[in-house]
Design brief:
Layout lengths: L1 E4 L7 H8 L8 E3 L4 E3 L6 E4 L21 H5 L12 H11 L1 H7 L1 H19 L9 H14 L2 H8 L9 H12 L15
Parallel strand pairs: 1-4
Antiparallel strand pairs: 2-3
Helix pairs in contact: 3-4, 3-5, 4-5, 5-6, 5-8, 6-7
Length: about 190
């Protein structure tokens, strides 16, 4: 069995110390209140995901995360960094999540949407933007396209209105580059969740 701790760096430090023992070679879990020692199966594997790689929230993007103790980090014997998927794979994921959009508009529209997302990621990496489009945000944009049938309006409601007002012209330029049309007037900031 494999156990995955999602958002590991959002865990409370006092809880993380309990897990630390399991991370040792031949680590065991001691349940003191039950006077029980749990030994892991030889094939047991433990995985964790963390947006900050245990370094904590440095830019406000991942509020609520903790800096992980160095002793804790040293017990993870393998660390992998996963970047965003290649454009074709991200397009395929969005198409699978919102198949009606693909059927109605074709893959070209999805490629344009992912291209805008890629530009926001590059802008974030270079310090031009304080937020970026995740694949989840691209999927929300595609779902909103199904509701509004307007890529610009769906984009405003899915991403642009989340951006700092001073950065919106940069984001609008990214949209214009990929869609070859102006984004137009910004919609009023609006928040809604299904």
């Amino acid at each position: 069995m494999a156990l995955i701790f999602d958002e590991y760096d959002a865990g409370r430090p006092d809880v993380m110390f309990v897990i630390q023992r399991i991370l040792e070679r031949d680590g065991k879990l001691n349940l003191l209140d039950q006077n029980l020692v749990i030994q892991p199966h030889p094939s047991f594997r433990l995985f964790a995901t963390a947006n900050t790689v245990g370094l904590g929230n440095l830019n406000g993007l991942y509020n609520g995360t903790q800096v992980l103790n160095q002793a804790q980090l040293d017990r993870w014997n393998m660390v992998a960094t996963l970047n965003y998927l290649p454009q074709a794979e991200e397009v395929a994921i969005v198409a699978a999540r919102v198949p009606h959009l693909l059927a109605r508009h074709g893959e070209g529209l999805l490629r344009q949407m992912v291209a805008v997302a890629d530009l926001t990621r590059q802008g974030f990496a270079s310090g031009d933007l304080s937020t970026l489009m995740s694949p989840r945000c691209v999927i929300s944009w595609a779902e909103n396209m199904e509701i509004f049938s307007d890529p610009a309006l769906a984009f405003r409601l899915s991403f642009l209105n989340k951006c700092d007002e001073a950065e919106r012209p940069i984001v609008a330029e990214y949209y214009q580059r990929c869609f070859d049309q102006e984004l137009g007037e910004s919609a009023l900031p609006l928040m809604a969740s299904a």
